[in-house]
Structures are given as structure tokens and as C-alpha cells.
Design goal:
With 656 residues, this protein is an alpha+beta fold. It is built from eleven helices and 35 strands. Helix 5 packs across helix 8. 35% of the residues are buried.
């Protein structure tokens, strides 16, 4: 969301660094007479092996006030099987325009020595889900044992920050990354999730920062883990300009905080007056406390104004025009909220965050590219607001934006001058107890004892409610019916839905954390089987499908639960007249984990029998969002405890 804004700031700053004349870029080359490489037998079971993964960016002085950036990639892949063929028969390029392509070459080397070269006419356009267009070309004639080789160079939008993911699901034998720039510009490269030395040299007036490494193992996706965030990656940034006599570090966090503050606070006197009129019209200044004011402002803006990420022009994001057109981009919506909060004397900080399933904001390494999403922080309440998410309400933000670092742009005033200073620290999520996925179900046998009538309520609060509010508020009637049908099938194992209602769907309900309640009544025979005179009740299925974790491979990554939460289930079963249950003890499971004496996760199920009423209580809870890999074995026991309960079958026998 915010990258276009940062690019603008960077381009404006780049003028200060440029004064040399244009020089040609370094060109990539390949072997004119390639042969198939001999691969170690330990890779025989891999679908493909990446023999070479060479990447680089080069910055050149185009003119007195412009720096160009070029990106080059060179790869050689050995194909072992059909999956490998499928994975590499299309090559995706990060290019949108033919004019950006400086050079491109690709070839397929067959085991018999034949070489099939790329026909550049086969380069096609493809559109992603966000309507972005990229170039793609097909590699023809791939077969087992062949090798794919390609390299390309293209001109890209200049940015002094970047990121390279240098690990994937296939092993990579040899990797390198380098940054070439005019001598005066010094880039820093920092590895994440691994260690590699970085060299910095000057050759023929060009500064080269480079790292090279070997034998990167393929990474498997694991349950409850952030695959992309845990992959090996390199991040880089421009840190110094030797022309600058002060030796000041460039693009530090304070610089960004100051620029963001100015950008989001840049309201004219006329706009400030219009904001005051808006406040008066809605009576916000008369509300009793800050929370009431924040909630009222947010509900009004999200009901009245449309947020459009595509609105990036300056004139589209001035408050005067936003109030008139009821439409705003990222900068405009931040200015509108900020202007209102300031007029109401509500203390706030602008905060920039990222999505922790991908990257994070590093206090020690100022990669502005990781600051994707703007939110508001209110220090008096220690709460957050997500202005660009119409589906969220204070104090709830998208859960992946929290439990990770944020850049707090803390407002400070000296006389009549206001600015911001930066602080990088965690964005805490709301307490685990406020997010729940609960079940309340009553089950009664039909007279013929071959079916159950199930009256069930599923209750979702906090972060767990967000997806359901979205699903129901942004769906048509047929889609809503399909959602309810799917839920009934998963939890009641029935398509015989007798009644349904969904309560507390308005987004405003989230502020007071009213639960989304999905209330259904259904009839099902799927939970009952007969075994002679016995009835088998598959009670465990009433909690819905559960994840099993019986993996053989050693766990590689820590656990991420998205958000801490509880799953409390109350199941009430009316036992048929004349029957008794023989294996009630199967309902008792107790698997918990304490960290330094404090319960952090657990699955506990128990029961109480009152006459012919069996009441089962289950409490499954994960009080933390993140668990270190050292606690994975205990985490797995708890996940599997819920799976074990899922398999519980009660045996009902006639009384003798």
C-alpha cells in the first residue's frame, strides 16, 4: 500500500547523489557449448536441482539528476522428473514492458546434447490476481535429465532498497548476489535466516557489494509456520554517499518517520476548517471519552468514504477533495483520520507495519520496503486502528500486522514546529482471551435412534470473527447459503439443514467484540452407527475436522498461530431411554504445557453426567501467538490431543 509513496520520496532524494556521467552496465554471459552437469546421487529424489542462481542489480548515472537501476538473473536448472518439468516449463519475469528488456536468452540442453534456444516471439503477457501484467516465456521440449538455462537483464523502477529470496523448495548448489553502483554509493546487504559474509570492493570506479554461498537446501512448507518469512533471504539498502562530507547514514528510520509525518499531516488551513465543520456536524467533540470518539470517527469514515489503494495522485488525496468525492487513497485516508484526531485532541502516532508471514521491520537494518501498511496507535489506550481496512474496527487490526515490529512515528513538538522521531518496537495483539472459536451444541436422538437432531451455535470473537464478518457482509444470498451449508456439513456432517441464522454481522459489532453467531439446526445420521444392539456415537466429529501432526521429518521452523485464542466447546447429549454409555472415560483428555510455571497452551476435555444428560466440556487454548521451535514437541502433543478427541466414539448399550 505504501510503497508508491516511499518510491516518490526516494526518487526526490536521489537528485542529491548524482553528478557523474553515464557508463555501460555489466553484461551477463554464458558458456557457448554447454554440457549436462553430473549431479551427486544424493539429489536423485529431488524433482529438480538448481545448479546456479546468480542475481544482481546495477545502478548507473543516467544524467546529472537521474540514477537508473538494472536487474539481472541467471539460472541453470537440472530436471529430474515430471514435477521438475512442470515447475520450470514456464519462466516468469518481473517485467511489464518490452521496452524494459535489455537482454534475454534461454535454452534447453537435452541429455543427447541437442540445444533448443528460446524464440523471443514466445514471450507472452500474463495478468495476476491484482491485474498486474508480467512477462512469461515457455521452455519447449523439456524432458527428464535435461537442463534449463536462462538469463535476462531489464531496467526497473529505481529503488535504493530491495530483497532477494534465495531459498525455495528445490536445492540450490551455487548462489550469488551482487550490487554494482558508482563508487560514491555504498550499499549494505544483510542475510536473514542464515549467515553469509559480504564483501565490498571498488573496481574501475564501480563499487561492488557481493555475497556468494553454496548448498542451500530445499525448504518444505510446515503446518503452523510462516513459509516465506522463514526462507533464506538477502535485504539491501543504500546506506552512505561518500560525497556527503558528514558521513551520515542515509535512509535511517528517523528520516522515514519525519517524511511520513509530513506526508500524512499536510493539511491546509482550508482543509483544517473543513475537518472542524465535519466534527461539529457529527458531534464528535461532545462525546465522553477518547474511545467513544475514535470509534465514532472510524465508523463514520468507513461507512461514508471509499478507500481505493489505486488513488495515488496528490490531487486525489487532498482532504478537501476527499470530503467532496467520498473517495480516498492511502495518503488521503491517513490525512483525513489524522486531521480529525488532531482536531479532537486525541494523541496518536502514525505506525508503519508489515505482514509477519513475509518479512519484518528490523531495528538494526532500515529497509523501507518492509513498511507496507499504515495504522494509527493511541498511546493513552495502547490500541490500534487500521484505516485502510474497511472490514476491521478499532481496536482490531489484521492479525498478521501485529506480533511483529512496527515503525512508530512518534509526534514531537518544539514550539510551533511538529515532527516525528522513530521507534521500532513490537505491535502487540489483543489478549488471547478476546479471540474465540466456540461451539455450543445440543444433540438429541430421533425416535428411531438412527439420526441426531443437532441445535448448534458457533461463536466467533476477536480476530477469529473477522473472516466470517467479511464472508457474510461481502457475499450475495446464494453465497451466504453456501457458507452456512459448508459449516453445517463440516460440524454436523449433514446437508439436511432445518434452520439457520447469523447474528452480529455489522462491522461495528467488532468494536464491542460481539460474537458472530452462526446458529443452525440440522438432522444427521452420519454420527451414528449400529453394532448389533449397540449404538456408536461419533461424538468427536462434533468439534469438526482437526489437524493431525505426525510428521517424520525434523521440525525446521517455529510455530505461528496467527493469533492467540481459545476454542471452548460445550456439547450436550441426551442419552436415549434405556441406554448407558460404557466408555465415558474416553472423553477425558488432559494435555497442557506450562512455560516457567505459566500455562501457555493446552487441550482439556471432561464430562459430567446428570441423569440422561451428558455434558462435555472442552477447553483448547493457545495463549501465545508464537512458540519457539524448542516447544514444538509439546505444541504437537496438544494439536494431536484435539485430533485424538476427534476420533472418540461413544458406545451406548442397552441397560440389562
Amino acid at each position: 500500500m505504501i510503497k508508491q509513496t516511499l518510491c516518490l520520496l526516494i526518487v526526490l532524494l536521489s537528485v542529491n547523489y548524482v553528478h557523474a556521467q553515464a557508463v555501460p552496465i555489466e553484461k551477463e554471459k554464458w558458456t557457448e557449448k554447454p554440457v549436462i552437469h553430473k549431479i551427486d546421487s544424493k539429489y536423485d529424489k529431488e524433482s529438480a536441482v538448481i545448479l546456479l542462481d546468480k542475481r544482481g542489480v546495477e545502478f548507473t548515472d543516467e544524467s546529472k539528476d537521474m540514477i537508473n537501476e538494472y536487474y539481472t538473473a541467471h539460472k541453470i536448472i537440472h530436471i529430474n522428473d515430471d514435477k521438475g518439468i512442470e515447475s520450470f516449463n514456464k519462466i516468469y519475469l518481473g517485467i511489464s514492458e518490452n521496452a524494459d528488456i535489455v537482454e534475454i536468452k534461454a535454452r534447453n540442453i537435452l541429455p543427447n546434447g541437442k540445444i533448443i534456444e528460446l524464440n523471443k516471439n514466445d514471450i507472452k503477457d500474463i495478468k495476476d490476481k491484482n491485474d498486474n501484467i508480467y512477462k512469461i516465456f515457455a521452455m519447449d521440449g523439456l524432458e527428464k535429465g535435461c537442463e534449463v538455462e536462462y538469463y535476462y537483464t531489464f531496467k526497473k523502477t529505481t529503488s535504493f532498497f530491495g530483497r532477494e529470496i534465495v531459498q525455495q523448495n528445490f536445492p540450490i548448489l551455487e548462489s550469488s548476489f551482487q550490487i554494482i553502483a558508482p563508487k560514491r554509493l555504498k550499499f549494505d546487504i544483510k542475510p536473514y535466516n542464515f549467515i553469509v559474509p559480504v564483501t565490498d570492493t571498488v573496481v574501475d570506479g564501480k563499487r561492488i557489494a557481493k555475497c556468494a554461498f553454496k548448498d542451500t537446501q530445499g525448504a518444505d512448507e510446515e503446518k503452523y509456520a510462516n513459509y516465506y518469512a522463514n526462507l533464506r533471504r538477502l535485504e539491501y539498502k543504500l546506506s552512505y554517499n561518500e560525497v556527503n562530507a558528514t558521513g551520515e547514514r542515509l535512509f535511517n528510520w528517523n528520516s522515514l518517520a519525519k517524511k511520513i509525518y509530513v506526508l500524512y499531516s499536510d493539511n491546509s488551513e482550508k482543509e483544517i476548517k473543513e475537518i472542524a465543520d465535519l466534527i461539529k456536524k457529527n458531534g464528535w467533540d461532545a462525546l465522553g471519552d477518547e474511545t467513544a470518539k475514535i470509534t465514532a470517527v472510524e465508523n463514520y469514515i468507513k461507512k461514508t468514504f471509499s478507500y481505493n489503494e489505486g488513488l495515488k495522485n496528490e490531487d486525489e488525496n487532498v482532504v478537501e477533495r476527499i470530503i467532496q468525492n467520498k473517495n480516498a487513497g492511502t495518503v488521503g485516508i491517513m490525512r483525513l483520520y489524522g486531521g480529525i484526531f488532531q482536531a479532537l485532541n486525541i494523541k496518536y502516532h502514525f505506525v508503519l507495519t508489515g505482514s509477519r508471514d513475509k518479512f519484518f521491520i528490523d531495528k538494526e537494518f532500515e529497509n523501507w520496503d518492509n513498511c507496507d501498511y499504515p495504522i494509527f496507535y493511541f498511546p493513552a489506550e495502547n490500541k490500534f486502528l487500521a484505516p485502510t481496512r474497511p472490514d476491521m474496527r478499532y481496536p482490531w487490526i489484521y492479525s498478521l500486522w501485529g506480533a511483529t515490529n512496527g515503525l512508530y512515528c512518534k509526534r514531537t513538538t518544539l514550539g510551533t514546529f511538529s515532527t516525528a522521531i522513530a521507534e521500532v518496537k513490537e505491535i502487540p495483539l489483543e489478549n488471547y482471551s478476546k479471540s474465540a472459536q466456540n461451539i455450543e451444541a445440543k444433540m438429541v436422538f430421533t425416535n428411531d435412534l438412527d439420526s441426531l437432531n443437532i441445535d448448534e451455535k458457533q461463536l466467533f470473537t476477536g480476530y477469529a470473527s473477522t473472516g466470517y464478518r467479511n464472508a457474510f457482509n461481502f457475499s450475495n444470498e446464494d453465497q451466504k447459503k453456501d457458507i452456512i451449508k459448508d459449516i453445517t456439513q463440516r460440524y454436523s456432517n449433514s446437508e439436511n439443514l432445518l434452520f439457520s441464522e447469523v447474528l452480529n454481522l455489522p462491522f461495528e459489532s467488532q468494536s464491542s467484540n460481539l460474537p458472530v453467531i452462526i446458529h443452525t439446526k440440522a438432522k444427521t445420521g452420519a454420527l451414528i452407527e449400529r453394532a448389533g444392539s449397540k449404538l456408536l456415537l461419533k461424538i468427536g466429529m462434533a468439534i469438526g475436522p482437526q489437524v493431525e501432526m505426525y510428521q517424520q521429518k525434523t521440525r525446521q521452523e517455529p510455530v505461528d498461530m496467527d493469533f492467540g485464542h481459545v476454542e471452548e466447546r460445550n456439547l450436550e447429549v441426551t442419552i436415549p431411554e434405556g441406554y448407558t454409555i460404557k466408555n465415558l472415560s474416553d472423553l477425558k483428555i488432559n494435555q497442557t504445557y506450562k512455560d516457567n510455571g505459566e500455562l501457555t497452551m493446552g487441550f482439556v476435555s471432561d464430562y459430567e453426567l446428570k441423569g440422561n444428560q451428558l455434558v462435555i466440556h472442552i477447553m483448547e487454548e493457545y495463549r501465545k501467538t508464537l512458540y519457539p521451535i524448542t516447544q514444538f514437541a509439546d505444541f504437537r502433543k496438544i494439536i494431536n490431543a484435539s485430533s485424538d478427541f476427534n476420533k472418540v466414539v461413544l458406545v451406548l448399550e442397552k441397560k440389562s
